[in-house]
């Protein structure tokens, strides 16, 4: 009874999005031909509690990024509603920070200046110290004066995470943030995300293609269906970190997810 | 670097030598194609009597003013047009129409509006730079990656801050390329403008030399124009090496 009373952090209700296909050539995986009304999201409904780490998985092109853009306020839904803290989302806010799929660091600013951009006021002594702290937190101390093109892919991601964290957001949106990184760097970033989530009390929404990543990071996994996307499966994971995916419940869950994603051969 | 050195120490002297030898052997008359030596002599003469100096300065003076005024008006306008759809739909047709008109076609108007002197020449330089700069700046703003705009929006940058911290720096590498091209055009136009509108400058120097059939001085004038053009280009290229601009070259 009491649970219904608690306010959910993010409340997504019958969210729909469709657009008119303007491409005259048919695109890979798209079911819509030219000038047809094309459904991307078909009545998504879910809610997320404050402090949850929620991973979204689903086939590519199913509308995960579109859903993210709508929840974070960059796009309007066709119908349905998105509420954060009980208020309708009308636009982006610096309380809900996104780490985008592509490099989002400003290449004309150094790592330090990029991180400073996340702050209201960045010239005071305290602010400079704070920036230094965050650089250290993501393992970039000594690289503050480097421009993004002088940093490796992993370092750029770290700087971007630091820039997002320094604003002290309520919600962190991450859209396949580590997709372009090499295997080991990706594992390191995962580890850091677990730490970040435990250190800062924030809600994290995380899109990934990597089922293992979702299993290792999420308190909850929401699996979306083929386009038009619906919630196909909503899984709660109560395992403590660090997680071993090769035994027990997690192993069974992993198999089940692979199966539901259409991978019928046991890998 | 190896190429630059070979040009400087080998190809350039060789070309000059060939030029001298061929014109001497074929006995080409001086007034049709002057020899390098007489061009050097003319250069030296004009250097000594100060003609070269004063004319170069007056050409540079006009180009600097015309170009400067164009940059400080065209770049902000281009940034605005690139961001404001409404402004773009209103101004773009007009700019696209005016852009292909050669600045030289404006000479009669320029003379009537500004009389004789530096002003009409500066006006022509302004025209020659203004329209291309607006168009280039607009398109470079339209080319800015959506991610940068989203990040800016996400962090709540708006108004002046949005333009000075995101739009301008994101478009700057392409704007600098545009500056290079436009300054080159401005330098082309000043010579032509000075042949008609004024009584000083390198364009005037060439016209004046032609009237007295001093082809050696004409070629000497051309050499100076080429050299100054190279120096101007080099100066703009220095801007490309600023650390906050370098990224666009380093990316690919």
Structure, briefly:
Chain A is of the alpha/beta class and 267 residues long. In chain A, 31% of the residues lie in helices and 23% in strands.
* Number of helical segments with 4 or more residues of chain B: 11
Whole-angstrom Rg of chain A: 19 Å
Strand order of the largest sheet of chain A: 6-7-8-3-9-10
Q: Superfamily at the CATH H level of chain B? A: MetI-like
Number of helix segments of chain A? 8
Structural class of chain A: alpha/beta
What overall geometry of chain A do the principal axes of the alpha carbons give? globular
**Backbone CA Rg of chain B:** 22 Å
Helix percentage of chain B: over 70%
Q: How would a crystallographer describe the biggest sheet of chain A?
A: 6 strands, mixed
The biggest beta sheet of chain B is recorded as:
none
Coarse shape of chain B:
globular
Describe the structure.
Chain A has about 270 residues and is an alpha/beta fold. Helices cover about 30% and strands about 25% of the residues of chain A. Chain A has helices at about 1-5, 65-70, 110-115, 125-135, 155-165, 185-200, 210-215, 250-260, and strands at about 10-20, 35-50, 55, 80-85, 85-90, 95-100, 170-175, 205, 220-225, 230-235. Chain A has a 6-stranded mixed sheet, with helices on both faces. The longest helix of chain A has 17 residues, at about 185-200. Mean pLDDT of chain A is about 85; it is low at about 1-5. Chain B contains 11 helices and no strands. The longest helix of chain B is centred in the last third of the chain and has 38 residues, at about 160-195. In chain B, helix 9 packs antiparallel against helix 10. Chain B has a single domain, classed as MetI-like (MetI-like fold). Chain B is mainly α and about 250 residues long. Classes of the chains: A alpha/beta (about 270), B mainly alpha (about 250). Chains A and B meet through strand 6 of A and helix 7, helix 8 and helix 11 of B.
């Amino acid at each position: 009874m009491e649970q219904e009373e608690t306010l959910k952090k993010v409340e997504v209700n019958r969210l729909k999005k469709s657009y008119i296909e303007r491409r005259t050539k048919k695109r890979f995986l798209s079911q819509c031909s030219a000038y047809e009304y094309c459904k991307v999201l078909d009545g998504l409904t879910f809610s997320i509690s404050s402090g949850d780490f929620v991973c979204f998985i689903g086939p590519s092109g199913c509308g995960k990024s579109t859903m993210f853009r709508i929840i974070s306020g960059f796009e309007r839904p066709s119908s349905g509603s998105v509420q954060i803290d009980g208020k309708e989302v009308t636009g982006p806010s610096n309380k809900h920070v996104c780490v985008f799929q592509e490099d989002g660091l400003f290449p004309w600013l150094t790592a330090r200046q990029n991180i400073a951009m996340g702050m209201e006021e960045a010239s005071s002594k305290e602010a400079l110290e704070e920036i230094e702290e965050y650089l250290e937190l993501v393992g970039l101390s000594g690289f503050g004066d480097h421009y993004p093109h002088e940093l490796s892919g992993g370092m750029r991601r770290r700087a971007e995470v630091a820039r997002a964290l320094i604003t002290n957001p309520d919600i962190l949106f991450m859209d396949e943030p580590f997709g372009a990184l090499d295997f080991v760097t990706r594992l390191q970033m995962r580890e850091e995300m677990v730490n970040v989530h435990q250190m800062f009390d924030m809600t994290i929404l995380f899109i990934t293609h990597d089922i293992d990543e979702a299993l290792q990071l999420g308190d909850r996994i929401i699996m979306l269906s083929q386009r038009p996307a619906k919630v196909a499966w909503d899984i709660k994971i109560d395992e403590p970190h660090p997680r071993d995916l090769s035994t027990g419940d997690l192993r069974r869950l992993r198999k089940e997810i692979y199966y539901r994603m259409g991978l019928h051969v046991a890998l | 670097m190896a190429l630059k050195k070979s040009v400087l120490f080998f190809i350039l002297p060789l070309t000059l030598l060939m030029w001298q030898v061929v014109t001497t052997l074929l006995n080409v008359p001086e007034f049709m194609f002057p020899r390098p030596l007489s061009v050097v002599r003319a250069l030296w003469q004009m250097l000594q009597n100060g003609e070269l100096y004063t004319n170069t300065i007056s050409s540079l003076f006009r180009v600097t003013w015309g170009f400067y005024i164009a940059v400080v008006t065209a770049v902000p306008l281009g940034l605005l047009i690139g961001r404001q759809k409404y402004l773009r739909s209103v101004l773009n047709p007009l700019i696209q129409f005016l852009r292909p008109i050669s600045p030289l076609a404006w000479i009669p108007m320029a003379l009537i509006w500004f009389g004789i002197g530096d002003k009409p020449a500066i006006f022509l330089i302004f025209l020659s730079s203004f329209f291309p700069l607006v168009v280039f700046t607009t398109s470079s703003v339209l080319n800015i990656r959506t991610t940068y705009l989203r990040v800016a929006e996400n962090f709540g940058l708006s108004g002046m801050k949005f333009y000075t911290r995101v739009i301008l720096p994101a478009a700057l590498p392409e704007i600098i390329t545009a500056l290079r091209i436009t300054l080159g055009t401005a330098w082309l136009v000043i010579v032509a403008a000075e042949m008609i509108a004024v009584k000083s400058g390198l364009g005037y120097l060439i016209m004046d030399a032609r009237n007295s059939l001093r082809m050696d001085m004409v070629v000497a004038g051309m050499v100076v124009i080429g050299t100054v053009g190279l120096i101007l280009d080099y100066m703009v290229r220095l801007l490309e090496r600023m650390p906050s601009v370098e990224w666009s070259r380093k990316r690919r």
